[in-house]
Amino acid sequence: MLTIKNLHAQVEEKKILKGINLQVNAGEVHAIMGPNGSGKSSLASVLAGRQNFEVTEGSALLEDKDLLDLSPEDRAREGLFLAFQYPVEIPGVSNINFLKTALNEIRAYKGLQPLDARSFLALTRERQKLVEFDAQFTNRSLNEGFSGGEKKRNEIFQLAMLEPKLSILDETDSGLDIDALRIVSNGVNKLRSANNAFILITHYQRLLDYIVPDFVHVLYDGRIIRSGTKELALELEERGYDWLKEEVALQGQL
Amino acid sequence: MATQIAATLYNKLSEDFKHKRFSPEEAKDAVYALREKSFEQFAEKGFPSIKNEDWKYTNLVSFLKDDLQTEVLAHDYNEVSPATVKQYFIEGLDAHTLVLINGELNVSLSTFHGDGTVSIQAISSAVDTPDYLPYIGKEVDVKHNSLAALNSALFKDGLFIEVKANGVVDKPLHIIHLNCSASGIFLQPRHLVVVHKNAVLNIVETFANIHEESVVWLNSVTEVYVEENAQVNHYVLQSGQVNTRMVNHTEITQKKHSLYNNYTATLPGADLVRNNLNVNLVDNNTETHLFGLYMGAGHQLIDNHSTVDHRKPNCFSNEHYKGILAGNAKAVFNGKVFVRQEAQKTNAFQQNNNLLLSDKAVVDSKPQLEIFADDVKCSHGSTIGQFSKEALFYLQSRGISEASARGLLVQAFAFDVVNKFKLAPVREHIEKQITHNLEQWFK
After folding, report:
1. Measured between CB atoms, does A77 come within 8 Å of chain B?
2. Residue B26: its pLDDT value, please?
3. Is it the case that residue B29 has pLDDT exceeding 80?
4. Cβ B411–A98 below 8 Å, yes or no?
5. Longest CA–CA separation in chain B, Å
6. Domain assignment of residue B358, yes or no
7. Same structural domain for residues B128 and B269?
8. Which of A115, B39, B338, B438 could form a disulfide with B407 if both were Cys (CB 3.0 to 4.6 A apart)?
C-alpha cells in the first residue's frame, strides 16, 4: 500500500530524514518509535505534505501514486490521513460543515456525487459512536475549546468519516488519560480492516497494548535503525534506546 | 480661501447655494439658519484634505476629479419599475419596502406609507411636522465635519421617519437606496429618524446603482434619535461598483434606558466608502452595540470612523469591527471612545480585527480612548493578521482544496461579527455575499 524508498528531506538547510525505507501492506499496523528529535513527526509531515519540508531524494508511493508529487489535499483524496499531534482549533468553522466539505471534496475527486444531507447525517451518527462522541461535539466549532482528549477523539472521528486507505497517527496517545486512550484505541481497532493500514507514531509501549502492531520500527537520526515485531516495543520499554544508539555508533566505526 | 480640493465641484456647490434654491426670501425653508451656518463652515474649510487628522489616511482628491452634476432630472429615472426594485429585495426578509431614488422617496414604488405607529414622509415635506425642527441638525457637528456641513447646507430630500411613543413597528423597514443617473452625480440625501419613548424600530438599508458605469457620489447624513427606553436595530448593507463613492455620516443620539444596535456590512464593489458613525449618549443607562464587517478588493478604500461619546453615567457601549482585505484594498478603522468626567460607571469596549489576504492590502487601525472619569471599565484592541498556515494545512490535509480552505477560514474570521446580525434573512444574505465574493477572489 505504502512504499517509501530512500526518502531524504530537510527543513531549510537542516537534514531531517536521511534515507527512509518502509513498506506497509494493506491490513497491517506499523508502529514507529524512537527518541525525541529522531524524525518521526517529520516523516508524518513529509508524507502529508506540510509546506516547510523539502524532499531532496526518494519516493513515497501510495499504491501507484507518488504522494510527493501531489498537493496536501490530493494526498488526502488519494486516501492518506494524518491524525495531528496538535489538532488545530478553528473558531467559526463548525465541525460538521468542515466534515461535509472534506467528505464531498474527496467524493468529487473520485467522481462521486456529494452525499445528500440525510445520508451524511446517518453516517455522522454511526461514526460518532466509534469514538463515543455526541452530537454536541459535532455542532461545535472545529476543536475550539476541546480538551486534549476531545481533540484526539475528533481526529479519529474524522478518520472514521473519511475512510482513508492509510492513516498515520502522530502521537495520538500523548496527552490522553486512560479512558480516552481506551476510547481512541477501540475506535481504531474497529476501523482496522484488510483494505486499510495504519502507522502509529508513539513514544510509549502503552498504546501498543491497545492497538497491537504487526511491525515495530525504530527511527533514529533520520533513518530506520531497527525493525521487528511487537516484542521490539517491549524490549525498548525495558532497555530504552541507548543500546540501539550504541550499535549504530559501532556500525558507523566499522 | 486657500487652495481648494475639487475647485470645480466646490464652485458649483457654492453657486447652488447662492443662487439656486435657498435664497433668504424662501422663508418657507425653516431650516435656513442651519443651512446658512453650515454653508459658512463648508465655504471656509472646503472638502477635507489629508492635513485634517480625521482624513489623514483617506485622500479624497482622486475621487472628486470627475465632472459631477448636483441635480438629476426626473426623466432620468422614469425607467425604474417595480420589477427593478424587486431584484433588490432580501430573500426571506418580511419587511415594509421604502424606495428612494437619488435620495427622494418614491411613493409609487414603496409598499408602505406609514400607519398609526410610524409616519413616513419625504424630508422636504416635513417642514410643518412639529417634531422636525427640534431634531434636524441638533447633534451634527458641522464645525468639524465639512462634508456633513455641506449636506446640511444643501440637502434637498430624504426620509423622515417618526415612530410614535410606545409604538412597535410590526416589520423591519427595508430602505432601498437606488441611484440612477446616466451621468456623474453628486447626491446629498438627508434622513431623520425619531423613535419616541418605548418604541421599537428595525431598519435595513441597502444601496444599488441602476447605471453601473457612471460615477455616483453620495454625501449622506442620517440622524437617529432614540428616545427614552426606545430600541433601534439599524442594519446598513453597503455595496456598489467601481465609480461608487459614499460618505455616510450617521449621528445617533440616545436617551435614558434606550438601546441602539448598528450592524454595518461593507461588501466589495465601491471605490470609496467612508462611514462616520457617531453615537452621543446624552443620558444615563443606555446600551449601544456597533458591529461592522468590511470586505475589500481591487483598489477599494473602506474607512470606518466612529465616535462613542459617553456623556452620562452607567452607559454600556461595545464596538466590534472586522475587516477582510484582498488585492490592493485599503481599510481605515478609527474608533474614538470619549468618557466624559460625569460619565462614571461607564462600560466601553472596542475591538478591530483585520485579515489581510494579499501582500498589497493595507490597514490603518487606530483605536482611541479618552477617559476623563475615574470609575470606568474600558478596553480597546486592534489586530492585523494573515491566514494561519497551520489551519490551512489542517483543512487541506482533510482533502479540502486550498481555495475552499481559504473560504472556510475567511467565513470563520467573519463569523463572530456576522453572527451578531439578529435578523436571520439579513445574516444569511451577507453570508451568501461573502461566499460569492470569496469565490471570485480565490477562483
Report:
1. yes
2. 54
3. no
4. no
5. 75
6. no
7. yes
8. B438
What is the per-residue burial (b if ≥16 Cβ within 10 Å, else e) of A139-164?
ebbbbbebeebbbbbbbbbbbbbbbb
C-alpha cell at A144: 475550539
Question: Three-class SS string for A119-153?
Answer: HHHHHHHHHHHHCCCCHHHHHCEECCCCCHHHHHH
C-alpha cell at A44: 508524518
Q: Model confidence over B97-153: pLDDT tens digits?
A: 999 999 999 999 999 999 999 999 999 888 778 888 899 999 999 999 999 999 999
Nearest to A76 among B398, B402, B414 (CB): B398
More confident residue, B258 or A141: B258
Q: How many domains does chain A have?
A: 1
Q: What does the block give as the cell for B333?
A: 478603522
Dig out the grid coordinates for A228 from the structure.
521487528
- Which residues in chain A touch residue B389, judged by CB atoms under 8 angstroms apart? 51
Out of B388, B394, B404, whose CB is closest to A105?
B404
**Pick from B224, B249, B283: which residue ends a domain?**
B283
Whether the CA torsion A105, A110, A115, A121 is positive or negative: it is: negative
In a domain, B308, yes or no: no
Residue B420 lies in domain: 387-443
Do residues B193 and B161 make contact, with C-beta atoms less than 8 angstroms apart? Answer: yes
Which of residues 108 through 147 in chain A touch B, CB cutoff 8 A? 109, 141
pLDDT digits (tens, 9 = 90+) for A101-116: 999 999 999 999 999 9
CA proximity to B228, closest of B170, B315, B165 = B165
Most A CBs within 10 A among B322, B390, B394, B415, hence the mutation to make, goes to B394
Whether B277 and B290 have beta carbons less than 8 Å apart is answered as yes
Contact of B262 with B277, CB cutoff 8 Å: yes
Q: Do A158 and B402 touch (CB under 8 A)?
A: no
Residue A206 is assigned to a structural domain of this protein: yes
Strand order in the sheet with A14-24: A14-24, A2-11, A53-62, A65-66
Using a CB-CB distance cutoff of 8 angstroms, which residues of chain B are in contact with residue A48?
Answer: 393, 397
Taking 70 as the pLDDT cut, the residues of chain A under it are: 253-254
Residue type, B441: W
Cβ(A96)–Cβ(A103) below 8 Å: no
